[in-house]
Design goal:
InterPro entries: TAT_signal. Residues 1-38 form the signal peptide. This is Cell wall protein. The chain crosses the membrane at residues 278-298. By secondary structure, the protein is α+β, with helices and mostly antiparallel strands. 13% of the residues lie in helices and 29% in strands. The chain contains two helices and 14 strands. Strands 1, 2, 6, 9, 11, 13 and 14 form a seven-stranded antiparallel sheet that branches. The longest helix is centred in the C-terminal third of the chain and has 33 residues, at 272-304. The relative contact order is 0.28.
C-alpha cells in the first residue's frame, strides 16, 4: 500500500513524501496534497505518462503477490515538476513497519529504466533510507521512473511468513535552495502524521521563502507473505547487482507514523518449497543407486553359475 501528503510556501522548495510500501510484493497508492495546497501542487504523478494529478488512487505495486528469496516486483510512475522554475527531485524509503527478521534483506531500486542504479538495502522499522539518484527537472518537465522491490537471495528460512510495510518519499525543491536529502526533509517537516484524524492543510516548515518546503506523500508498495504455492511465486526481474547500503536514519517515535494520505503495503515470502524439493531429489537418487546395485549383484551370480 502507499501514502502521500504535501505542504508549500512560495514555491521555493517542495517536499513530497511518497509512501510506497515497497518490497518484493507491494502495492502502492498516491494520496495527494491537502486541499489547502491544491492550487499549488507543483509535484504531480501519473501511471500512464499522460494523465497527471496530485494523487493516484490505489497502490503502486500489487500487494497480493508473494515472494521467495530472489523474487522482485516492478512498476513505473511518471513524476512532473509543474512549477515554472527548475527544481531537483530526490527520493527515499521510510520503513513504517517491519518484522525484525526482514531488516536489511529487502531492497528498493528507483531510476530511469535505461540506467537503473544498484539496489538500496532497506533498514529496520522506523528507519529512513535515501535512494542514490536525484534528477534535475525544468519547469513542466517530467521523468519516467522504474521502481523495483525485492527480497534478497540470501534471505534465510526464518524470513518465512514475515511482512513489512514502507513508504516512498519524494522531495522536489528549487535548485537555488541548499541541497538536502529526502530523509532530512521528512525528519524536519512540520506536517501532521498520517494517522491523525483531522487533515488540515499541511503548513510549510518554519523558515524564509527561499528555504520553505512542501511535504507530500505518495503511496508505494508493501511486501506480502512468502509464497505457499508455486503459482504465486514470481522470479527476480533484475540481474544480480551489489547492494547500495544507503544510510538508514532512525526516526523518532513521532516521526514513525507515515504522512497523511499514505497507504501502507506488506511483503512476505517463503523458502520451504525449495527445501522440500532438495530432500525429494536426494531420496530419489539414493533409491536409483540401491536398485542398480541389486540388479548388478544378481547378474554376477547368474554369470558365475
Amino acid at each position: 500500500m502507499t501514502r502521500f501528503t504535501t505542504p508549500k510556501a512560495g514555491w521555493s522548495r517542495r517536499l513530497i513524501a511518497a509512501s510506497a510500501v515497497g518490497a518484493v510484493a507491494a502495492a502502492g497508492s498516491l494520496a495527494g496534497a491537502p486541499a489547502a495546497f491544491a492550487a499549488k501542487d507543483y509535484l504531480e504523478f501519473s501511471l500512464d505518462g499522460t494523465t497527471y494529478a496530485s494523487s493516484i488512487p490505489g497502490p503502486l505495486f500489487n500487494e497480493a503477490l508473494q515472494y521467495i528469496p530472489g523474487a522482485s516486483s516492478g512498476t513505473t510512475i511518471w513524476v512532473r515538476n509543474s512549477s515554472g522554475e527548475p527544481a531537483r527531485l530526490s527520493s527515499a524509503a521510510f520503513m513504517s513497519r517491519s518484522d525484525p527478521e526482514l531488516s536489511r534483506l529487502l531492497g528498493l531500486t528507483a531510476g530511469l529504466k535505461s540506467e537503473l542504479p544498484s539496489r538500496t538495502t532497506l533498514g529496520a522499522e522506523g528507519s529512513c533510507t535515501d535512494l542514490s539518484q536525484a534528477w534535475d527537472l525544468d519547469g513542466g518537465e517530467e521523468v519516467e521512473l522504474s521502481l523495483v522491490v525485492d527480497l534478497s537471495t540470501n534471505a534465510p528460512n526464518d524470513t518465512m511468513n514475515r511482512s513489512a510495510d514502507f513508504d516512498m518519499v519524494f522531495l522536489l525543491e528549487s535548485e537555488d535552495a541548499a541541497p538536502r536529502t529526502a530523509c532530512a526533509a521528512l525528519a524536519g517537516s512540520s506536517q501532521p502524521p498520517a494517522g491523525s484524524e483531522s487533515a488540515p492543510g499541511n503548513p510549510a516548515p518554519t523558515g524564509t521563502v527561499a528555504s520553505a518546503s512542501e511535504l507530500a506523500t505518495l503511496s508505494g508498495t508493501g511486501i506480502p507473505r512468502l509464497a505457499a504455492e508455486s503459482n504465486s511465486i514470481f522470479p527476480a526481474t533484475l540481474p544480480e547487482r551489489p547492494a547500495d547500503a544507503g544510510p538508514s536514519q532512525a526516526m523518532g517515535p513521532a516521526e514513525q507514523t507515515p504522512q497523511a494520505g499514505i497507504i501502507p503495503a506488506g511483503f512476505q515470502s517463503t523458502v520451504e518449497p525449495i527445501i522440500r524439493s532438495l530432500s525429494g531429489t536426494l531420496l530419489i537418487g539414493m533409491s536409483v543407486l540401491f536398485t542398480a546395485a541389486v540388479v548388478l549383484r544378481l547378474r554376477n551370480r547368474s554369470a558365475n553359475e
